[in-house]
Write a structure and sequence with these properties.
Shape: elongated
CATH superfamily: Winged helix-like DNA-binding domain superfamily/Winged helix DNA-binding domain
Radius of gyration: 19 Å
Number of domains: 1
Number of strands: 2
Strand content: under 5%
CATH topology: Arc Repressor Mutant, subunit A
Distance between the termini: 40 Å
Length: about 150
């Protein structure tokens, strides 16, 4: 199964923009420092998120902001924006089974039946997880860290 690391970086960017976007100018360079990703990769991710309508990026001076509430941004939507065909790549299938073998001739059809159900279930699960959920998880880790540091 495969969900690109770009999706994780996109979530990182979205949480960062949510947390700091109103307090400071969030640029690709700043997001690059925070995420450890190349600024060009960040700009490509921001472009995909902007194209989907999740964020806006100010022209000239720069700076990104969320364009819709975090409860409207699902993990599925993020993955789709970053890699439009991600769901077809979730589960790999060996590409060259032997057409001379009865199993080889039919294995893709057999696998497609089972794997399609898995893809559908996973996509439904991804649609239930929102940026709001992930922000809550992030804030929970801050609270836990604060409690740990206080001890």
């Amino acid at each position: 199964m495969h969900i690109s690391t770009k999706c994780s970086v996109a979530i990182h960017c979205l949480i960062f923009i949510y947390e700091y976007g109103e307090k400071q100018k969030v640029t690709s360079e700043l997001l690059s420092l925070s995420s450890g990703s190349n600024p060009v990769t960040i700009r490509n991710i921001l472009s995909a998120l902007k194209k989907d309508g999740m964020i806006s990026v100010r022209f000239g001076t720069g700076g990104a902001a969320l364009d819709c509430p975090p409860d409207e941004i699902t993990l599925y939507r993020i993955c789709r924006a970053i890699e439009p065909d991600f769901d077809s790549k979730l589960i790999g299938v060996h590409p060259m089974p032997s057409p001379l073998c009865p199993v080889g001739r039919n294995i893709h059809t057999v696998l497609d039946c089972s794997y399609q159900k898995i893809r559908e279930d996973l996509c439904e699960s991804l649609k239930k997880i929102t940026l709001e959920n992930m922000i809550s998880d992030y804030k929970g880790t801050l609270d836990n860290r604060k409690n740990y540091d206080d001890e």
